[in-house]
Amino acid sequence: MHEGDDKPWVQREGETEKQYEAFRKYMNLDANERTALHAWYDYAEWNWGKSRASQERAKDLDTAPGYFRNWSYQHDWVERAKAFDAHIASIEFEKREKEALDKLEEHREKQLQWAKIMREQSIGLMKKLNDRISELKTKDLEDPNVIARLIRANVESFKAATEAEAHALGVYDLATLLLEQQD
């Protein structure tokens, strides 16, 4: 490889159009089937056209012609193709990572919306319950156990909403990280 090549798969200085096209045929082969001979078959078809005679001529060879193999060595086809494969794998990984992060963010937003709705409902229910208790006279109070259960249920609902919101915001993860850094 040439030192400083940040994109070694692009055409190099001194590499002719035919040599570069031959390299592209090689590079675009599946990595498991990438050989000079397979690239030669594709190159011969490109160079000579798709006539039956030219296909027969290319298929008669059990190895790529010497000049073709020399191009491969001279222009580091193996390393350049590996670099291209790594580049493509990196792009695909980044794409999958972004998609996963987008889905995670979408899920977090839904959790926040759900927690907000649940919290608002809990606050509204608590206000209604408080108003109802205030309106009643002592002798008119319903069974105190019913009121206690309603209050407990409402408190649990509010607590669940608060925890869901904290989870969606990553509060627990942040707290864990901070505690780990203190140790």
Walkthrough of the structure:
With 183 residues, the chain is mainly α. 75% of the residues lie in helices and 0% in strands. The protein is built from seven helices and no strands. Helix 1 crosses helix 2, helix 2 packs antiparallel against helix 3 and helix 5 runs antiparallel to helix 6. The longest helix has 59 residues. The radius of gyration is 35 Å and the shape is rod-shaped. The two termini are 47 Å apart.
Notable characteristics:
rod-shaped, mainly alpha, 183 residues, single chain
Layout of secondary structure:
Layout: H1 17-27, H2 36-48, H3 52-59, H4 66-74, H5 77-135, H6 144-169, H7 171-182
- What's the overall geometry? rod-shaped
Low-confidence segments: none
Number of helices: 7
> Based on helices, strands and strand pairing, what is the structural class?
mainly alpha
Question: Roughly what fraction of the amino acids lie in strands?
Answer: under 5%
Give the integer mean of the pLDDT values: 79
The rounded distance between the terminal residues' Cα atoms is 47 Å
Q: What kind of sheet is the major sheet?
A: none
Order of helices and strands: HHHHHHH
Helical fraction equals over 70%
Number of strands: 0
Radius of gyration: 35 Å
